[in-house]
Amino acid sequence: MAKAVGIDLGTTNSVVAVLKDAHPVVIVNAAGMRTTPSVVAFKENGHLIGQNAKRQSTLNPERTLYSLKRFIGRRYREAAEEIELVSCNVVSGPNEAVRFEIDDKLYAPEELSALLLRKLVDDASSYLGETVHDVVISVPAHFNDSQRRSTMDAAQIAGLNVLRIINEPTAAALAYGFSRKAHETILVFDLGGGSLDVSVLDVSGDLFEVRATVGDTHLGGGNFDKEVTDWLAAEFEKRHGINLRQDKQALQRLTEAAENAKVELSTVLETQISLPFISTAAAAPKHLEVILKRAQFNELTAHLLERCRASLEAALAEAKITADDVDQVLLVGSSTRIPAVQELVRKIIGKREINRCVNPDEAVALGAAIQAGILTGELKELLLLDITPFSLEMETEGGYVSTIIERNTAIPTRCARLFSATGDTQSALNLYLLQGEPKLTKDNRRVGQFKLEGIAPTHPDLPQVIEITFEIDANGIFNVTAQDKKII
Length: 488
Hints:
The chain folds into three domains: 299 residues, 2-Layer Sandwich (Nucleotidyltransferase, domain 5), CATH 3.30.420; 81 residues, Actin, Chain A, domain 4 (Alpha-Beta Complex), CATH 3.90.640.10; 94 residues, Sandwich (Substrate Binding Domain Of DNAk, Chain A, domain 1). 28% of the residues lie in helices and 34% in strands. The strands form seven sheets. Strands 1, 2, 3, 4, 11 and 12 form a six-stranded mixed beta sheet that branches. Strands 18-13-14-15-19-22 form a six-stranded mixed beta sheet, with helices on both faces. The model has no long low-confidence stretch (mean pLDDT 90).
């Protein structure tokens, strides 16, 4: 049987893994690297993907696309924070969908993600010596229905068959708990390049049960980079009166320097940032030379750490446990290497040592590969009980919402409800579906709508009753059907 692979389609980097002798291993790409930059660039004679695209980003900032995962499945008005993090031109497309404008052409995030997925799978095929078609793809636990569907669309554009969409914290726990027999309560703190997920799971032998998940899909390593980028730009403007934010190439150099400084400050207390010839304004070259200390970096990003704290504390509360109930803490995602992030987790959970048995950059892909092995029969069945991070609701009269499926409900799940139509001769009904928690429609995300036609008329004294069936599958994607019910 052909191999199926697990893919961690990351914001900054992507990883592919496969089962080998019943154990997951990371697949190296064509360049011999274990991670592939999630970057796509356009040139006059075609496009570049991965490391080659990243290398030329400074000289080609407006045609180099990264952080695609932060845009996929989002409307333009939902991506304001993300737009500030990229150098390319982001515009509003059909139905408010996000589009990237390159050389007067518009590209959807799904199209560009498909190019990346195709590259990842082609490298995997070369490594394995056989064509790969079946994949398990990871997504943040707090991806909504639109983001999950768009990820599936990207895979289909790439010609792939998606066996399953798996939540990233769940995949990481699977990588950790695989072959372990002890009963443990695990907290997964997953801070990647573009999203934060905190999940609490119970692991017991072959059972993996998610108890709660809380997250922020607008928070990741890119936000930490931006704080340093803004600080560098402000320092330069203060010294030379030149705003580097108006120069795309200079801004790209600042962004790369900020990311490198963040990485260096994970192991040293201060780092020197040197950017010669960052500006040639007024016919005189200008250079940027500054020292950034770890303590100063922590001050610049303190508000981001507070957002991390809020999600961590909320996850414990939703799981109805205290820090003392946590047996193991897994840090997942490259941004968990930030010392202040590690210290935050230690303070909230206590003095418990953080488990480091799985590489934070590779844990999710390894778990996705295990899931692929289960679905193809290569591994024995494990019982994986994941949950939906959002409530699924329907708009009711007066702009209020009626909750159909509560958040943190185990998936797959199915629920049927009866609703009354207004008027005894109403022959059609518009249904609006929402995801979120607030009680007012305007505060939730509308994720779908459909029109139920052919409603049979009823007696004036009897209500028109509609039965609506909501289903959320194992991928976290919902389906809805409706029919009118006659009352006799």
